[in-house]
Design a protein that fits this description.
The chain has 335 residues and is mainly β. 12% of the residues lie in helices and 41% in strands. Strands 10, 13, 16, 18, 22 and 26 form a six-stranded antiparallel beta sheet that branches. A five-stranded mixed beta sheet has the order 2-9-8-5-6, with no helix packed on it. The chain has a five-stranded antiparallel beta sheet with strand order 17-23-19-20-21, covered by helices on one side. The longest helix has 27 residues.
Length: 335
């Protein structure tokens, strides 16, 4: 009897040892765990920027393998992903972590935005280009100062100013693009050249540009430099819209019929014209609107001209009777 009891005790001890060892083995063979509590902002970048993802791991060791794939291609075999996306879009990324206990995986969706810059004409530099008056003869855009009125964006290099088309003696009356911050909604009483730098409504920013197309007006990047211009915000001016709606001694109303437009031409494709209608068959541009220059390749310059149905011919040249003014802001540029 003692012999059987002794044998049973030995067997029990053996089972205990086996059970204990098996429990330890099971703990070591737990599959890998991936912890990646990333916010949407962490998974959003701009094209050309370095993208980094660094999840936390459990149940891994020095023999663990890592595989990051994107669009069926392996892009990294490191625990931390460091990668550059050169094209904007949405990317699905899969991470696989493999140990001797098995494989765990996790998917991520990365948003890559276009690397765009916006020339918004805001800040101290731009404000210094705003004339202290609006009527003919005010400083900066008339008189001697008009000859040196030429603004330049420090980041994109985009520049503009006065055309000096007739030699510059008449300043802004010859055409140009002037920085402004004047708001005036009184279309009936203030639809005159004394309020030529006003717009009737703000677009939410402080500064903008008023263009007078007495002659073609060009904005450009530095010589031998080209960028894609994605869009421009356009709006009416108080002077132009007031005359379009109510007419004056020189121009008739276009509130019911007639046409007034801005043509936008790029230096790299002068035969292609993007037309912005300020008035057409009674439909008037009274609010700020974004014009998307779709399909336009990188350009060095854009030139604005204006035309319309209410015009006169003088000395063989056709001139608009309707004030040839409009405003623009927020030029979105791809570097």
């Amino acid at each position: 009897m003692k012999k059987y009891l002794l044998a049973f005790a030995v067997l029990a001890m053996s089972m205990a040892v086996f059970t204990s060892c098996r429990s330890d083995d099971e703990e070591e063979l737990l599959p890998p765990i991936i912890t990646a509590n990333f916010s949407e902002a962490d998974l959003t970048i701009k094209e050309g920027e370095t993208f980094v993802l660094e999840p936390k791991y459990a149940n891994v060791d020095e023999k663990t393998t890592y595989e990051w794939t994107c669009r069926d291609a392996v892009i990294s075999k490191e625990p931390k992903l460091t990668y550059i996306f050169y094209e904007y879009g949405t990317y699905a990324i899969r991470l696989k972590v493999t140990t001797k206990a098995g494989t765990s995986q996790q998917d991520f969706r990365v948003t890559v935005n276009e690397n765009l810059l916006t020339v918004d004409f805001e800040g101290e530099y731009w404000s210094k280009w705003i004339p202290s008056g609006q009527a003919f003869g005010c400083n900066l855009i008339y008189g001697e100062e008009a000859f040196s009125y030429h603004w330049n964006d420090s980041i994109t290099g985009l520049s503009g100013g006065l055309t000096l088309a007739w030699g510059g003696q008449s300043g802004f009356a010859e055409g140009g693009a002037a920085i402004s911050n004047y708001i005036d909604s009184n279309l009936q009483e203030h639809a005159t050249a004394d309020y030529q730098l006003s717009v009737p409504k703000s677009n939410g920013s402080k500064n903008f540009v008023v263009v007078y197309c007495g002659s073609p007006v060009t904005i450009s990047f530095p010589k031998d430099t080209k960028h894609v211009i994605k869009s421009i915000d356009f709006g009416p001016t108080t002077y132009e819209l007031g005359v379009v709606k109510y007419g004056n001694d020189y121009a008739k109303s276009l509130a019911e019929e007639g046409h007034l437009y801005v043509d936008i031409m790029a230096d790299n494709d002068p035969d292609r014209v993007t037309r912005l209608n300020l008035a057409k068959n009674g439909k008037l541009l009274e609010e700020w609107s974004t014009c998307r220059l779709q399909g336009l390749d990188a350009v060095n310059s854009l030139t604005f001209t204006m035309g319309g149905t209410d015009s006169s011919v003088w000395d063989g040249v056709t001139y608009l009777n309707t004030p040839a003014y409009f405003a623009f802001d927020n030029i979105v540029v791809k570097p």
